[in-house]
Every structure is written in structure tokens, then in C-alpha cells.
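Q: Entry one of two.
A:
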Amino acid sequence: MSHRVLFLRRLVTLAAAGALAAAVLGATAPPAVSTSAATAADGATACDSHASGLVPVYGLTLPAHGGGLAEHDLATTFDNSSAVVGGFDRVGYCLELDGPSGPQWVWTAMPSFTKDTRQLLPPTKSGHIVRQRVHDLDTASNVAGVPTATGGTGYLEMWPNSYGPANARQIHGSSTSTFDSDDTPRTDVGRGSFQIHRVSPDPLSGSAPSTVLAVNGLTQVYVLPIDVGIGNQPTGNPDWT
């Protein structure tokens, strides 16, 4: 059977046992739900039209500030991971934010990059590093600059480490001096990156990379605001660092 997983400042992970799975990443306060199970209504998001057939697996409200989370599990508002105990083969994220001009949301989905549902959440522990291309990337958003598209190529930058702008030359158009779609994690756990980017299929040519969503700073040493954004940051570093 094919299984798929989805994600929400509410980060809600969705999945369908024996058939579909999905995970949702968002920014409004989540509804009160049971920690043992969740219905489709409990995980309702602005992305629902793009994630039909998916059920919530995790709920997570992103904190306003980082600090104190390194080497600790993120507290979830509900855990229904037993719904996908048989596995999953596709993952989606829906990030919902209260933007300056009203609600903002972004949806993205891709083939699964892990068999462990906990590895779908933003990394907070040493050794949890995901730095890889993904194919069959879907995106949709109400934020200008993020296209409604299917079948694209993506690049994941997910780690609890601090990081620098030096790149591995994996992504055409990435910078060696600006934080963007191809940065390099350092050895220490001390900032954290949870980023998904649209990139060219060819590392040597093609369109410029663009950020789909970013959640940075969960594991930083000091209690400072985290960085959360949809699309490229209009000024400064495109990945919201």
C-alpha cells in the first residue's frame, strides 16, 4: 500500500494509514485535540484543498522564541503517528502565518525523505541532518512569488546545527556569501534550519533557486525570536536567516 505524510505555526503532520500520509506546518494557534488521535477536522488548514485524503499525525505550535530546545524533543499538541505505523511514501507541509496584511499560507509536498515520523519535525537533536534534493515537488501559496506547481525539484536544509553561507555547489544560482538554498551546517548544535527550496533540476544551469518555507533558530543558544517566512525574504538573506 502507498502511504503519504503532511505538515503547520501550528505545525500539524498529517497521514493516512494504509493509503496516504501528510504533514502540516503553520502559524495560528492549534485547536484543542486529543493526544491519542486526531480527525481531519482537528487538523483543518488553509492547505486542505491540496491535501485531500490526509489525516493529522502531529500538531506543533511554533514558539515565538528559540533557546532551550537543543537536544530536546519538540512538544507536540497531539500525536497520532500510530496512524502511519505501516509507513508512508510522501510528505507535505502547510505553514500558516499571521502576515502583516492578513493570513499567509504555503503548501508543499514531496516523496518521503525518512521512514521515521519524528524526523519530519524541525530538527533539535545532534545528528538529525537532512541536506538533499527531492523530486516531484508540489507547491501552492497565497504569497506572491511561490508558484502553484507540481513535479518540480526541491532541496531540503534541515538540521539543529549552526550554519554558514558557504555552499556545496549542489544548487545552481546559490551564493557563497548569502544565506539561501545551499548553506553548510557546522558541527555545533546552536541555531537550527528547517527549510524547503525550489531549485533547478540541473546543478549547473537553469532557473534561480527560491525559498518555499523557512523556520530558523529553534535551537539557538540565546532566547531570541525565531525566523519564519514564506517565499524569499524580500531583503537580506533569501532564506530568512
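Q: Entry two of two.
A:
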Amino acid sequence: MPFDEFTTEDLCEIYRLRWQIELSYRDIKERIGLKDVHGRKKELVIGEVFAKMTLYNLYSRIRNKVENSQNSLNAAEMP
């Protein structure tokens, strides 16, 4: 990377954005329980990751639908 192509501020912003990605990965791993995987073979680990991601996505969709339904009910009850 040429030194004159980016300012110090540009590099700081790039690093900040990259750090946000790392924090997002960590949060996802914690939420779907990927800190410890049970499989030792590559195929089993991949399967476990996809299974946990699928369950988390399903849970998120259900939670969002319930929250939206509750918000709709609350709005309908207001005079």
C-alpha cells in the first residue's frame, strides 16, 4: 500500500471499521453458541455452524414476528 495514497485519518477509519467487523463476529459466535464446537472433523464443524445459524435465524424471525404483533396490538388498543 503506497504511503501517499491514504492519510492517517483514512487508516484510522479503516482500522475502526475492521474492528467493528471483528466485534460483530464475536457477538455472533456468542449468540449462536460457537465458542465451543463439538465436532472434530471439518464436515461436522461446518454442519454444526450451519445448524446453529439456521436455528438462530429462525429464532430471530419468530421473535420479530411476535414483537411486531405485540406492537400492532398495543397500537390498536390506544384510544
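A: Comment on entry two: The chain has a mean pLDDT of 88. The CA atoms of residues 55 and 66 lie 16 Å apart.
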